[in-house]
Design goal:
With about 450 residues, the protein is mainly β. The N and C termini lie far apart (about 60 Å).
């Protein structure tokens, strides 16, 4: 869960497709599960989408009007800058697959899906002179893998009341069962320039899995009531989320061996110094909290939220081999909004398009060289209607520009540009998915 990295990062090679900072903790935590949320700064606690699923607050499932299937990908281009280096990287990630189904006249809804939780992908090299003066020892640190999340959630509108103009209030609550699973793989090599020394390799694989429960609630009511049907009105929403702490089961496999190279450059193992095979361990995750507030009408929405998780309370037993002293309190503040010119109904193609904008600031959970990383990003995007007006299916596109880390204390500054592409598919308005016909 964190390689013993050199004090100065000197380069990143082809094997690393992600950030060098993914060498710490569980890697780079991936927050947004679909394009819509990613295009609005990551907000989701005090929002809901009638034609989209957002598992960040399971209470939002009751806002679904139609069944919806969603999928998306994110393509990231990165540039890393240090005191004496500049390098680039890129990667493509699956944002997730999800399906949401409302039933019982919208008072109940279920959601389930699969999404990445964290990503590890780096190759870091450094060098140090031999005491004999015969050249430099080359150190290579590589990492791969990450955690995934499969979730199933259920939500219920405990109270709901509307008059003929749509004025009223609604209280919803929901819960997700999130099954985390995946492996974190790292290796460290020391390669000597001359004979008389044995090259060494230490590889470590940590496989994690277990369930995590997340809870959420949303309260929605009127700020400005509609008096006649042509009035827009104004509604507010308050959302609260809690992800309970849990103990993840872990299996650790470690191999430490010496090796040499043949004349053709093939690695030849020489001796195994240490071997551990699937040693059972435990890693305890701390609890996470979120609070959000939003306002909206038929044309626009604006939401702000704050999330917090104290990763200093993470506990890992010695058998896991995890280093937990490089973690801090993660805090994320997000602001996001959307605008649909046509409102709820009607309009031409561009008037039915939803335009999105967002901003976020995060104090990362990683502490590198006694400096807690921070990250800032600005996002924007659009949801384009597809298949005419007979469906609410959408093509979702977006982008985010951001920066992570700094040049202080010999760290790297990471600048990134993300491009998001996704699809939301709902049935034709004349079709009824998952509803039993009374008369055949």
């Amino acid at each position: 869960m964190a390689a013993a990295l050199p004090s100065v990062v000197l380069g990143q090679g082809q094997q690393g497709s992600g950030s060098p900072y993914s060498a710490y903790g569980f890697g780079e935590l991936l927050g947004s599960t679909q394009v819509v949320r990613a295009s609005m700064g990551g907000v989701g606690i005090a929002t809901y989408d009638p034609y989209g699923l957002d598992p960040s607050n399971p209470a939002s499932y009751t806002g679904l009007i139609r069944p919806v299937f969603e999928a998306g990908i994110a393509m990231r281009t990165m540039r890393f800058e240090g005191a004496s280096l500049s390098t680039k990287g890129n990667r493509t990630d699956l944002l997730g697959l999800s399906l949401g189904i409302p039933f019982k006249a919208g008072r109940w809804a279920v959601g389930f899906g699969l999404s990445p939780y964290s990503d590890v992908g780096y190759r870091i090299t450094s060098a140090a002179p031999l005491s004999t003066g015969e050249g430099d020892v080359r150190y290579i640190y590589t990492g791969d893998g990450g955690l995934n999340k499969a979730f199933f959630g259920l939500a219920h509108a405990w109270e709901s009341k509307r008059d003929s103009l749509g004025n009223g209030w609604r209280v919803s609550a929901g819960a997700n069962y999130n099954h985390l699973f995946g492996q974190l793989v790292e290796s460290r090599q020391a390669i000597y320039p001359v004979g008389g020394f044995y090259n060494s390799n230490a590889s470590n694989r940590l496989f994690l899995r277990d369930g995590v429960i997340s809870l959420g609630t949303q309260v929605q009511s009127d700020l400005v009531k509609r008096v006649v049907r042509s009035d827009e009105g104004l509604r507010f929403m308050v959302g609260v989320t809690v992800e309970l702490g849990t103990s993840l089961r872990a299996d650790r496999t470690q191999v430490v061996n010496s090796f040499s190279y043949s004349a053709s450059g093939v690695e030849l193992p020489f001796d195994t110094v240490q071997y551990l095979n699937e040693v059972a361990a435990r890693v305890e995750l701390p609890v996470a909290f979120g609070l959000g507030f939003g306002v909206s009408n038929a044309h626009w929405s604006l939401s702000m939220e704050h999330r917090m998780r104290d990763w200093t309370k993470l506990v890992a037993d010695e058998a896991s081999g995890a280093r937990v002293n490089d973690l801090g309190v993660q805090r994320t503040t997000s602001l996001g909004g959307s605008f649909r010119p046509a409102g709820d109904v009607g309009g031409n193609f561009w008037e039915r398009t939803i335009y999105r904008l967002g901003f976020r600031y995060m104090e990362d959970y990683l502490v590198v060289k006694n400096t807690q990383l921070d990250e800032i990003g600005m996002s924007f995007g659009m949801s384009l209607p597809v298949m005419g007006s007979s469906t609410r299916s959408r093509l979702n596109i977006g982008a985010e520009l951001g920066e992570r880390g700094s040049l202080e204390n010999g760290l790297l500054r990471e600048r990134f540009a993300d491009v998001y592409i996704g699809i939301s598919i709902t049935p034709d308005l004349r079709e009824q998915w998952f509803k039993k016909r009374r008369i055949e």
